[in-house]
Amino acid sequence: MTDAERTPSELDQLVDRDPEETAEWAASLDAVAREAGPHRAAYLMRRTLEHAGRTGLGLPALPETDYVNTVPTAAEPAFPGDEDMERRIAAWNRWNAAAMVTRGSRFGVGGHIATFASAAWLYETGFNHFFRGKSSSEAPGSGDQLYIQGHASPGIYARAFLDGRLTEAQLDNFRREAGGGGLPSYPHPRRLPWLWEFPTVSMGLGPLSAIYQARFNRYLTGRGIKDTSGSHVWAFLGDGEMDEPESTAALALAAREGLDNLTFVVNCNLQRLDGPVRANFRVVQELEAQFRAAGWHVVKSLWGSAWDDLLALDTTGALVRRLREVPDAQFQTYATRDAAYIREHFFGADPALAEMARVLTDAKIIECFHTSRGGHEPRKVYAAYRAALAHRGAPTVILAQTVKGHTLGRGFESKNANHQMKKLTADEFRDMRDLLGLPIPDSALGEGPVPYGHPGPDSPEVRYLAERRAALGGPAPARRTHPVPALPEPPERAFQALKKGSGKQETATTMAFVRLVKDLMRDPGTGRRWVPIVPDEARTFGMESLFPSAGIYSPRGQTYEPVDRDQLMYYKEAADGQILNEGITEAGAMADFIAAATSYATHGEPMIPFYIFYSMFGWQRTGDQFWQLADQLGRGFVVGATAGRTTLTGEGLQHADGHSHLIAATNPASLNYDPAFAYEIAVIVRDGLRRMYGPEQENVFYYLTVYNEPKVQPPMPEGVEEGILKGLYRFREGTPSSPDAPRIQLLASGTAIHWALDAQRLLADDWGVTADVWSATSWSELRRDALSCDAAQLNGEDRVPYVARALCGAPGPVLAVSDWMRAVPDQIAPWVEQDWSSLGTDGFGLSDTREAARRHFGVDAESVAVAALDRLARRGEVKRETVREAAGRYGLA
Fold it and tell me: Is 592 annotated as a binding residue?
């Protein structure tokens, strides 16, 4: 090939000090390829690259390795346990997991069998030798954090049954929780808080959260809150789950920050819910390339010991080449076909392989292709786990190949439909019993429900299990449910600044909230426990003043001189920084929040996270994570800033939030407030600190919406605390111009209070109508209270909803207005005795000035005034012509 024909290379721009030497290397490689074949040449090149890496030359790594185990058999560490004993324990767990789901199928509640069947040894090896419990001396009070694959939950329940933490009655209530005492379908801390720590079955959230949990562990250590260096995060995932964008969204972060306290274990059974994960490709190779490119250490555990003989026969490399070219769907087919088929279609593809097959028995071929996988052998799994923990400087992913439905029989193994198969027949149970070698008589496998199996509480198996868990620090998974001590209450002076108002100065409620938190972070009792979280918009929310004082967390500190170092509020990163500034990733920021919000249980260290974001990009963008937060019993403050549909001028449709309060109202753990004034924020935050971190320690979180519209903040009136917290109080009573003046009640939340106050003035000055203005701090809390009262009424209790009591006897109709769609205030309409109507910002947002946007949606002061006159006209309290006149005067007609 001439120089003109050669593809240009980036190396062409670098000076070649010795072109003759370069040519000799190329000629040597050509000679090897010519004499020994291209595969030998490739092998030598890879060996050279491997050697270069070991000697520190720093060459880029190849994205893929051969389709073989990373840890060679000869390099496997000695297995430290009693393998026969562990096989018996695993057999009981396999049986009881299948029995539990099959027994539950009588009631139509479903369940998954095949996932745990494939992954059993991935869990058993960890439980017996690796996973630290909460009482571990290496990770006291924390242990390891285990993100269990959701569909594998029956196997975890089966193990908890074997170690005495669950009873047969509880197993029989799998997926039957309504009567109490049942077991949730998947890992759900809210439903089974003594066992599960992390909800994982909403696929993709487990791996994302595991990364940020590992990072938060480092954050706690860096900040001096708690030494968590002994904790390790294990995330068990499915190969199909890795298609979720959240699964791989933070891989670079984990590598960038060197999170070697994190291991992903991907169960590569090559099947997702309906068929092959990569029918025409190889998912293991794809994942390896993806993780290696992101900077992760990759350990592949693909083949069981039966393959050792085959690989030893592969003197030409033909077997390894064939393994790399066979697509997953075809390999799945090999796992179900006879030896003749495999001889023809696998070995027959290459003369060297055909020659190899002649010395292999049919039994050997069946063993290799049907069941011998790295993920099914405890020695292989142990070697992979040891390699993961030994690696330093980067997280590790273990790609463990298994057979989905392993040990469940030919009706299950490698079948496309096995994810939907919910029970075994009596004959299948007999086959499974024989395969596992369990002492269950045929008489127990008759017409009735298949029995659970247990070797006895004093059996060698149970004693061994208990001894292994005791050595590792107690049961796992396990969640600490005892309450941690209440945090000291912050001093009143931190809240007083907001309660006294801003005088003549205009201040947005966003700024008021940030100022409050900044003051609370200075409190010597609890200040260090605040965790400010923001997705790269700190300056938008006025948080840059926290940069130099609190610092932005970075495990490397600040290795550069910031461009604004000479400014008062310069960009400061520190290894003990308090702020988590996540870049442009709301999902990452939310994962941070979840880790911090549940630190009281995970580590016994209560933290007070507040996560501030564009309100449009909270519940809408990461709503699934808000449910994860609730399920994980998280506590803290989430703050939707630049809230409402009309306050963020010029940003347009994608930034205009008129519905987050409606979405938030669906989450039972979220206490949602739309405060109008700074003093309301002070009262709400103080209440939140009391409820979440005081003696009560409720498993709730607070959602506050704040606005970027500067307004004069009034001082707090007397006696309004109850109304603020319950959701409604009268802020300003109208002064009637005459005893028979028409009257209306204006209910407003957030920034809409100012439109209502202006409308109150217009109605009084221009039309002689008296309006009372109410601050509706929480539409959803009013509704929840009312629903609770309705339920109490059905039980014979005489309870009146707070909203009905607050508005009882208030003259005239009620008109509600907010910067949200009408469905938000309409939540309380059934419990309002007066005529009800509402105004809101239904429809898509748009770019314009605040005034123009509010006029467009019909929620500005003039629109409110006209709407109020219309409601009164319908009641005959003002003339219909007055409505038309007002519309004309205000330019609405």
Answer: no
